[in-house]
Amino acid sequence: MLKTTGYAAKSPTTPIEPFSFGRREVGPGDVRIKILYCGICHSDIHQAKDEWGGSIFPMVPGHEIVGQVIDVGKKVKRFKLGDFAGVGCFVDSCGKCKSCKANVEQFCEKHTTLTYNSLESDGKTPSYGGYSSQIVVNQNYVLKVSKKAPLERVAPLLCAGITTYAPLKRYGVKKGQKIGVVGLGGLGHMGVKLAASMGAEVTVFSTSPAKEKDAKRLGAKNFVITPKSENQIKKQNDSFSSLAEKFDLILDTVAAPHDLNMFLRLLKRDGTMVLIGVPPKPYMLEAYSLIGGQKRLTGSLIGGIKETQEMLDYCTRKKVFSDVEVIDPTRINEAYERTSKGDVKYRFVIDLKNE
Ligand code: NAP
Ligand code: ZN
């Protein structure tokens, strides 16, 4: 086993702390990566605190990984020593089922091994994520990162980037369309940048009035303040009426329970609202929010390897990178607290060069 240092949650109620563990030796199809940077996604926090249930401890979170190739197996053709590489939300799948063949390995019918908090194909070895010194991954699940790109700003693209890029592409966002982004956090700020880069007119819906200036700098044309508490919602519905039936597509990135119906009313006839945030509690849905105007409420889960590579290449070409606050590993717990309060501009990225 390869001795690896990292940072783990040992239980849902204890802080992230230093943790040593073993990674598998490099197999014929594997790439070994020295991790340089890893983003902190809100999914890391949900899982480390076991908010979705079923978490496996100890847990080394992290699925926004960028690093440098330091070893390759005999059969590896796609990577050589010194290349920059990325690893996103999953590290294995069966490769043969309909979903894998359709390049949506995140929906593999046999097993998708998530980068952490998951089991490998043997059904018993836990996977450990990117808050660590190195990772060993089959070459088919490793992304190519351009040496010209700012690596710390690329790391968040491996989850926040692909999760917002995939639905924007799927629903054919183009110049002149009106796109709403709900929640200006890690995913939201990438949604704004990407939709604006595709020529859309972007409106941010945020509970944080202080983010207005940033929203415009990131590429939004409009900024609308949304209420957090139930009793403010009625008032808000009145002020929303001027926006009714204006939007082609709305991406909802919010990590906490909130009212969906007020956003569904803002869609044009046949418009689409995509849920990408995963609050731990269910939503209340009014049937008429969908029936009036035959609107569509759907979801989206990250993206397959092919589309993730396409997104990385697109972002490098268009110079669309994440706004990041780079931190030392000793500040992971502080970053969790600040992200949970919406106090992040707009992604914390852990510097792991010295691990
Ligand atoms: P984040 O950086 O914490 O951003 C979430 C944003 O939601 C906050 O910045 C805040 O924006 C807004 N918000 C927070 N609490 C709120 C509340 N009570 N009411 C209304 N708005 C609130 O999180 P993230 O990393 O972007 O992740 C967002 C969600 O997406 C998480 O649930 C995560 O698990 C999920 N996710 C899903 C996928 C997928 O494939 N579907 C992939 C990655 C992550 P404002 O301050 O602007 O209101
Ligand atoms: Zn994520």
Concise overview:
By secondary structure, this protein is an alpha/beta fold.
Give the SSE order as H and E letters: EEEHEEEHEEEHHEHEHEHEHEHEHEHE
Structural class: alpha/beta
How many separate helices?
11
Poorly predicted parts? none
Could you characterize what this model shows?
With 355 residues, the protein is of the alpha/beta class. 25% of the residues lie in helices and 26% in strands. The chain has 11 helices and 17 strands. The protein has helices at 42-48, 98-101, 151-154, 160-170, 186-197, 212-218, 230-240, 261-264, 287-291, 305-318, 332-340; strands at 2-9, 16-23, 30-39, 65-72, 84-87, 90-92, 113-114, 134-138, 143-144, 178-182, 201-206, 222-225, 247-252, 267-275, 296-299, 324-327, 347-351. The strands form 4 sheets. Strands 3, 4, 5, 8, 9, 16 and 17 form a 7-stranded mixed β-sheet that branches. Helix 4 crosses helix 5 and helix 4 (160-170) crosses helix 10. The longest helix has 14 residues, at 305-318. The mean pLDDT is 96. NADP nicotinamide-adenine-dinucleotide phosphate (NAP) binds at residues 41-43, 46, 159, 163, 183-188, 206-208, 211, 228, 253-256, 258, 276-278, 300-302, 339, 342, 344. The site of zinc ion has 4 residues, from loops.
Keywords:
six-stranded parallel β-sheet; 17 strands; binds NADP nicotinamide-adenine-dinucleotide phosphate
Task: Draw up the topology in text.
Elements lengths: L1 E8 L6 E8 L6 E10 L2 H7 L16 E8 L11 E4 L2 E3 L5 H4 L11 E2 L19 E5 L4 E2 L6 H4 L5 H11 L7 E5 L3 H12 L3 E6 L5 H7 L3 E4 L4 H11 L6 E6 L8 H4 L2 E9 L11 H5 L4 E4 L5 H14 L5 E4 L4 H9 L6 E5 L4
Parallel strand pairs: 10-11, 10-13, 11-12, 13-14, 14-15, 16-17
Antiparallel strand pairs: 1-2, 3-4, 3-8, 3-17, 4-5, 5-9, 6-7
Helix pairs in contact: 4-5, 4-10
The chain binds NADP nicotinamide-adenine-dinucleotide phosphate and zinc ion.
The site of NADP nicotinamide-adenine-dinucleotide phosphate (NAP) has 31 residues, from α1 and α5.
